[in-house]
Design goal:
By secondary structure, this protein is α+β, with helices and mostly antiparallel strands. It has eleven helices and ten strands. Helix content is 42%, strand content 25%. The longest helix has 19 residues.
């Protein structure tokens, strides 16, 4: 399902011109708004995902201020030099515009989990949770203008163009350094967690390597080597260990016959179960159970 930003607001004094100009990419939504403003306009906004607010243009002699709560100290924006704000998920933003006639701005909402997965990097929580109000950078503004132009383009270019621009902007704002090469090609922590959780939940059926590779965005060969580098075991052996743990639970819980334990834990028959159990645990199921209950 495509990412859809969710925002609550209570505002007044704004009149949108020609509707919103929106483009959507993988985990990113970019909106351009052209808005006429009353003599006194404003309100509050809160979103369930992090976002960037970039002032592209404004007209009028007045001033604009923002604050992060109704009782917080207001920050006055220098509209010529302080055009970018980063607002984390769940953070309220209260805005007041006095004698501002018109604003044009770009909003970029993004799903942090999707961006983390695409970059194969854990996004720094300190960066994600830290509001940054009223800063600017000529490089970022140049990228923002290109994104806005693409949003308003009646014949947009290939998705990779806008997607690449938006992703570049997020990488710069979140100050993500170039990744150091991983030793022995290990999985990123989110990839390992996703793969092992999937194996644990589905260990009683035949799991295809293709399924696991797809979960992590890797080729089957790359995933297989990276999984072993991360865990010391190939994926199928990790699944076998998960089945054996389930079998141990059944053995200790009741007097279920070994034949039933074998079937319930995905082994072809009792002989197969016993052979695999002894190879991995060092004892037959019956001997292991006896030792645990002694």
């Amino acid at each position: 399902m495509a990412f859809q930003p969710r925002m609550q607001n209570k505002i007044g004094g704004f009149s949108v011109i020609d509707g919103v100009h929106r483009r959507q990419w993988n985990g990113i939504v970019a909106d351009v708004w052209n808005v006429n403003c009353a003599a006194h306009a404003g309100g509050y906004y809160v979103a369930s995902d992090p976002r960037l607010f970039i002032l592209l243009d404004s007209r009028g002699p007045g001033r604009s201020t923002v604050r992060l709560s109704p009782r917080a100290k207001s920050l006055v924006q220098d509209r010529e030099r302080q055009k970018i704000s980063y607002i984390p998920a769940g953070v309220e933003l209260w805005a007041d515009l006095v004698n501002i006639d018109f604003v044009r701005h770009l909003d970029i909402h993004f799903n942090a989990e999707t961006i983390s997965r695409r970059l194969m990097e854990e996004l720094d929580p300190a960066q994600l949770d830290n509001p940054r109000l009223f800063f600017s950078d000529p490089r970022l503004m140049a990228i923002a203008e290109l994104i806005a132009a693409e949003c308003e383009n009646p014949e947009p270019l290939h998705d990779l163009y806008g997607d690449g621009l938006a992703l570049s902007l997020l990488i710069s704002v979140l100050n993500l350094p170039r990744s150091a090469p991983r030793k022995r090609g290990k999985l990123a922590s989110w990839q390992l967690r996703r793969a092992t959780d999937f194996i644990e939940e589905n260990c009683l059926r035949n799991i295809r390597l293709e399924e696991l590779a797809s979960l992590t965005g890797l080729s089957q060969s790359h995933f297989s080597h990276a999984f072993k580098a991360s865990t010391g075991l190939p994926p199928h052996q990790w699944q076998t260990q998960a089945r054996l743990e389930r079998a141990k639970q059944l053995l200790l819980k009741n007097n279920t016959p070994l034949t039933s334990v074998a079937v319930e834990t995905g082994f072809s028959d009792q002989a197969h179960f016993t052979r695999v159990f002894r190879k991995n645990v060092g004892a037959t199921p019956a001997s292991w159970k006896k030792s645990q209950l002694a």
